[in-house]
Amino acid sequence: MDLFLVGGGWDDARAHELYGGFVDAAARRAGGPPRILLVVLGTDPDSLEYHERYLRTLGLVGGHELVVDRVAEGSAFDPSALEGVDGLFVGGGPTPGYHASLSSAYAEIRARVHAGMPYAGFSAGAAIAGTHAVIGGWRVDGRPVCPDESNEDLDPLTVVEGIGLVEGAVDVHAAQWGNLSRLVAAVQDGLAPHGVAVDEDTVLGPAGVVRGAGHVWEVEAAPGGVVAVRRRASVQ
């Protein structure tokens, strides 16, 4: 399965390193320049301006046709948009909003990815990719487990059913926003069986290969309520 989970970040100098593998996987599926669907949330002016970052970054990689589906907040993503595309890229923004808009299409997305369509998730798009989706929150039993700035307008640590492309949970902006501790709390409290937290400007790709500027942090439960954390750096 060609799955690429990006922890956020906008280092244009790393565009090929972070997104080239996804475009190449889509090209192999297409047998030529691929048609890629970019799904992003929001139709207001601020959102449209933010979406331009994806167009610029993916444009630096090149070699593909990009189709953009801008889903209005509060509206459901139409899975018919997946017809005729060779790869799906789900962008970032309000993670609860992405979950609400795409959840009715999770089964269709999962089926297509298992059938060979590459998937790339950036920030929120990565967070909803797991069987358990960390969509926000910053406190457990009223006590902080990560910075308030990561709350996504939710108070308690909130984990819901995700797309199911990878077992466990995915958190993002790990080192930069302090979200590794949130994933540790989710695993320790049994909200997710295990998970990975991805740094910004870093991608976790097929076969568990890490590329980019930072780390991927693997979090697993251990006997006695202990949580084991392992840090993996980019391959050179």
What is the CATH fold-level name?
Rossmann fold
Percent helix range: 25-40%
**Tally of strands:** 15
Q: Helix and strand string, N-terminal first?
A: EHEHEEHHEHEEEEEHHEEEEE
How much β-strand is present in the residues?
25-35%
The separation of the N and C termini measures: 22 Å
Radius of gyration: 17 Å
Count of runs of 4 or more consecutive helical residues: 7
**Shape field:** globular
- Main structural class: alpha/beta
Report low-confidence residues grouped into runs of 5 or more. none
Mean pLDDT: 96
Domains, number: 1
Overall CATH class:
Alpha Beta
Strand order of the largest sheet: 3-2-4-5-1-12-13
Largest sheet: 7 strands, mixed
- The CATH superfamily name is Class I glutamine amidotransferase (GATase) domain
CATH architecture annotation: 3-Layer(aba) Sandwich
Topology overview:
Blueprint: E1 3-6, H1 15-30, E2 35-41, H2 45-61, E3 65-71, E4 87-90, H3 95-102, H4 106-114, E5 119-122, H5 124-127, E6 130-136, E7 139-140, E8 143-144, E9 158-161, E10 166-172, H6 174-177, H7 180-188, E11 194-198, E12 202-204, E13 210-212, E14 215-221, E15 227-233
Helix pairs in contact: 1-2
